[in-house]
Amino acid sequence: MAKQIITSASGRLITHRSVIGWAVFVVCFALVANHHQLRLTVVAAESTPPAHVTVWLNKLSRYVRFRNGKLSCTANMDGQGPPSESTLALWEKQYSPSAWSVRFPTPGEVIDYHVKFVKNESDRNKEQLETTLDVPYGSGDRDKVDIYGENLPADAPLFVYIHGGYWQMLEKETSAYPAKPLVDRGVRVMIVGYELCPDVTLEELVRQLKVAGEFVLNYATENCVKHVSIAGHSAGAHLIASMLDQSFQSAVGEELAILKDVYLISGVYNVQELRYTKSVNKDNLLGIDDGNAKRLSPLFASYDHLRSTGLKFHVYVAQHDSDVFREMSSKMCERLQSFGLSCDLNVLPNLDHFDIVENLALSDYAITSAILEGAGKQQN
Ligand SMILES: N[C@@H](CC(=O)c1ccccc1NC=O)C(=O)O
């Protein structure tokens, strides 16, 4: 009789024999799929594979993915063109955050609510708070920042926010919803605007964000600010993770030491799959190709240069983000940790891709509290 070595998550007994069965299946499938240049997404696994097998799966992750009790096998398609129709259909859903929300009957209503919410909150903050608007940092029409909390001392801690919208929607004017609870506690808030695709390519946008980052750190230095934190939502988290590369560090030099905390919220850290989706990248409006797809994916970037900076990363993702979004966040955090950096991963329950940031308008919210605590302005 086969000996029990581990119990699976579903409570089934996993035996040596089934471990070997899993392994043989996975390896054969990966090899066959790869040989035939197939991109197959198959098998909802009847039970969770045992830990040993999951480790092998991760090692074979170019070919095989394990997500939430589902096994999928993907051939190595590096530079080999678009995926099959069925894989693409899967990706369309994984990269459509509104499809995963449980708050409204349809995805369209989630987006409508979000757009209205962020506009109303931002308009209210513009009326209620002291502001300096449209300070330019670059040459583009949208390359400007809005500053909230101008009544605070010049050297107050500074919080910088980079909005999301898949690099093609939203704007700084409707992205000031995090301002009030922070300004009320003594933190100045800067909302960064940026050019949108397809007016610029994603590659160009990343370059512009580095200019914005330099502007922020110069501003902070000139005003004797001791603490800068920065947060980005979704595509905004991608832009921050992309901005913080070796060339940015070389450009800003010692000023980087003022940047203390980075909050990456429901971020996109791999653009290799979404580049094929119509919902995100119709007619390649982002300008992603085989040559730059990996370079534009922070999940593959080196952060070795940040080792001695003391910069702290905080990765947040929502329970009702898609499997792929949750996986990207945990991998991003692991990636940062692999370079010796401090990173905490926070999966926030009962939230989706949109209320995970809408709640920044609340003073009583986990991310707001973390930002205030980081800035030395703890709530009572
Ligand atoms: N078309 C997307 C919209 C979206 O992803 C989005 C909308 C507003 C703010 C951030 C978003 N996602 C990433 O930047 C969706 O289906 O949810």
TrEMBL record:
Its EC number is 3.5.1.9. InterPro entries: AB_hydrolase_3 (IPR013094), AB_hydrolase_fold (IPR029058), GDXG_lipolytic_enzyme (IPR050300), KFase_ver/fungi-typ (IPR027519). The keyword Hydrolase applies. Pathway: Amino-acid degradation; L-tryptophan degradation via kynurenine pathway; L-kynurenine from L-tryptophan: step 2/2. It catalyses: N-formyl-L-kynurenine + H2O = L-kynurenine + formate + H(+). It holds the Pfam family Abhydrolase_3. Gene3D superfamilies: alpha/beta hydrolase (3.40.50.1820). The keyword Hydrolase applies. A motif (HGGXW) lies at residues 163-167. Keywords: Hydrolase, Membrane, Transmembrane, Transmembrane helix, Tryptophan catabolism. Residues 159-353 form the Alpha/beta hydrolase fold-3 domain. One of its GO terms (biological process) is L-tryptophan catabolic process to kynurenine. The chain crosses the membrane at residues 20-38. The main chain amide nitrogen atoms of the second glycine and its adjacent residue in the HGGXW motif define the oxyanion hole, and stabilize the oxyanion that forms during the nucleophilic attack by the catalytic serine during substrate cleavage. Catalyzes the hydrolysis of N-formyl-L-kynurenine to L-kynurenine, the second step in the kynurenine pathway of tryptophan degradation. Required for elimination of toxic metabolites. Belongs to the kynurenine formamidase family. Homodimer. This is Kynurenine formamidase. The lineage of its organism: Eukaryota, Metazoa, Ecdysozoa, Arthropoda, Hexapoda.
